[in-house]
Specification:
The protein is α/β, with parallel strands linked by helices. It contains 14 helices and 13 strands. The chain has two domains: 147 residues, Aspartate Aminotransferase, domain 1, CATH 3.90.1150; 223 residues, 3-Layer(aba) Sandwich (Aspartate Aminotransferase, domain 2). The longest helix has 22 residues. The protein binds 4'-deoxy-4'-aminopyridoxal-5'-phosphate. 4'-deoxy-4'-aminopyridoxal-5'-phosphate (PMP) binds next to helix 5.
């Protein structure tokens, strides 16, 4: 039998580094090792009861069939209402789409819009999936490094330098995975001013963490400060992070009708629709009591404060204060070039993260996976006890380097 040869688009991409890290942690745990797991990209809370109850109700009412590609009327209404409240702008049903998670919506958006040679500006550090999603859909990721000195954010100058006639998309992820950085109104406005000169460029704003925000009031969305760009912005969101619903797989996006129609056309051939039960649960999440979101944000805030203070107290590490999401991006330049007790040299953040796993039993993800080193990402979507124990173990391991 001849060896299976995957399609070229498969060899062009990597598996998700965060999914791989989670699998490695599961393996080590199965071997009986106790691992302090800071890799997790999902809330450690359970889905709220009223959301589960809506799913159970949908099942018993026989809402178990295909829905329209664009979702049940209840979910459509819930999404339109949510987007209206968040942006202050009016969207119609023809301007929204749904999919099996924000991840699938983003993938399908690229599939619907990219041809070979089209460029996508990806500010780094980036969510691991963006470049590979672009590559899988024949596009070319143009990675723009955004260092700590600009708060890990894309500046107007860097944006202007990356745009050209081949640019199809710019990705903006606020709050960011992996840094927790949030774009202010003024920063968004300055980026919008640059985009005014490039009318062929679309912006994908990934706002999946928009409710996990530690600042005053509500997070600002690009379309809100630049409504003149509404026909060029695809605002992506979902229920995974805010409502602890990662396993339900439901994401949505709002954007210009022609783009949405193209996405929906593909969606009709890809999955027909996301699970009808998840749609019912998601409608309940978006329209029901929002107390869970407020309470969980306060819990994340206290964990963030403990994590940032603890990590900054470690000689050799430093960490900016994230304004949203549940990640911190830790600078480990102070550990690079040092030698482990076994005599091996830490060459980069991948070596450092492996060293932490071996010596501190702490699992984190190297910054190189996000396109900017030497850093590592920790998730604080875990208990305060685990965070404190991890930081003590990290401190001990770092001090053992010479
Ligand atoms: N965007 C970002 C920045 C994320 O971190 C994630 C989840 N890790 C997603 C999108 C996808 O979310 P989901 O598919 O669960 O809606």
């Amino acid at each position: 039998m001849s060896e299976f040869e995957p399609a070229s688009r498969v060899s062009r991409i990597k598996s998700s580094a965060s999914v791989a890290a989670a699998a490695r942690v599961r393996e080590l745990k199965a071997e009986g090792r106790r691992i302090l797991d800071l890799t997790v990209g999902e809330p450690d809370f359970d889905t709220p009861e009223h959301i589960k109850a809506a799913a159970v109700e949908a099942i018993s009412q026989g809402e178990t069939k295909y829905t329209s590609v664009t979702g049940t009327p209840a979910l459509q209404q819930a999404i339109l209402q949510t987007i209206g409240l968040r942006t202050g702008l009016h969207y119609t049903p023809a301007e929204i789409t749904i999919g099996g998670g924000a991840k699938q919506v983003i993938f399908t958006a690229f599939m619907a819009s990219l041809d070979a040679g089209d460029e996508v500006v990806v500010p780094a550090p980036f969510w691991v999936s963006y470049p590979d999603m672009v590559l899988a859909n024949d596009g070319t990721p143009v990675v723009v490094p955004c260092g700590e000195e600009t708060g890990f954010k894309l500046t107007p100058e860097a944006l202007a330098g990356a745009l050209n006639e081949r640019t199809k998309w710019v990705i903006l992820n606020t709050p960011s995975n992996p840094t927790g950085a949030v774009y202010s109104r003024a920063e968004l406005r300055a980026l919008a001013d640059v985009l005014a000169d490039f009318p062929h460029v679309y912006v994908l704003t990934d706002e999946i963490y928009d409710q996990i925000y530690f600042g005053e009031g509500r997070l600002t969305s690009l379309v809100e400060v630049a409504p003149e760009l509404k026909d060029r912005i695809l605002a992506v969101n979902g229920v995974s992070k805010a409502y602890a619903m990662t396993g339900w797989r439901l994401g949505y996006a709002a954007g210009p009708a022609p783009l949405i129609a193209a996405i929906n056309k593909l969606q009709s051939q890809i999955s027909s629709c996301p699970s009808s039960v998840s749609q019912a649960a998601s409608a309940a999440a978006l329209t029901g009591d929002q107390g869970f979101v407020r309470e969980s944000v306060e819990i994340y805030r206290s964990r963030r404060d403990a994590a940032v203070a603890g990590l900054n107290a470690v000689d050799g590490l430093s960490c900016a204060t994230p304004e949203g999401a549940f990640y911190a991006y830790v600078n480990c330049a102070g550990a690079i070039g040092k030698t482990t007790p076994e005599g091996t040299v830490i060459r980069d953040d991948q070596d450092f993260v492996l060293y932490l796993l071996d010596h501190a039993s702490v699992a984190a993800i190297p910054g190189s996976a996000y396109g900017l080193g030497p850093y590592f990402r920790i998730s604080y979507a875990t208990s305060l006890d685990i965070i404190e124990e991890s930081i003590a173990a990290i401190d001990k391991a770092v001090q053992a380097l010479s």
